[in-house]
Known about the structure:
Order of helices and strands: HEEHEHEHEHEHE
Mean pLDDT: 79
Pfam families: LRR_6 (PF13516)
Keywords: GTPase activation, Leucine-rich repeat, Repeat
Shape: globular
Structural class: alpha/beta
Oligomer: single chain
CATH superfamily of the domain at 62-177: Ribonuclease Inhibitor
Helix content: 25-40%
CATH architecture of the domain at 62-177: Alpha-Beta Horseshoe
Protein name: WPP domain-containing protein
GO molecular function: GTPase activator activity; small GTPase binding
Largest sheet: 5 strands, parallel
Number of helices: 6
InterPro entries: Leu-rich_rpt, LRR_dom_sf, RanGap
Amino acid sequence: WKVVENFLPLKRKDQNSGEPTSSGVTWSFAAGSNLSTSTSIKAQKESKKNLNKFYKELRTLKTVNMAGRQFGDEGLFFLAESLAYNKSAEEVDFSGNAITAAGIEAFDGILQINTALKTLNLSGNIIGDEGAKCLSDILIENVGIQKLFLNSTNIGDEGAKAISDLLKKNKTIRIVQLSNNTIEYS
């Protein structure tokens, strides 16, 4: 109820009768029913504004920290394109952004041509084995990335095998972190 109190509209008194009146917003407890269309439109505009800000940041800075911004797969597709044009970013942190295996495909065609990027952090995203395989296929031809952080990404044995195959072919990657995944000893 404390949370609900923060969102309830203020009650105003009718100037004629002195009775409390509602602000015209209808509240219910059904999922998603309390969002008016103007609220959702404002949220969409705010999301686009943030993505544009992140896009500009990604195109100009040497070290880009996008950790925990929760932009997901769609946001990554939008932001990854800026990496193709950025010849100065050496470290990019996309950790904790709800990126899945489908989102990793956003790097296809981007990481193959970007040689300035030295560190890529995707920790805390649930890319799983499929995402690890996709990323491995993309990074085989990359000659820039030296550090790859994939901690807590739900990678299992199949994903670990794909990364091991990548390391046999790509000699520029020097550090790979795979802590807190579901990789078995074998």
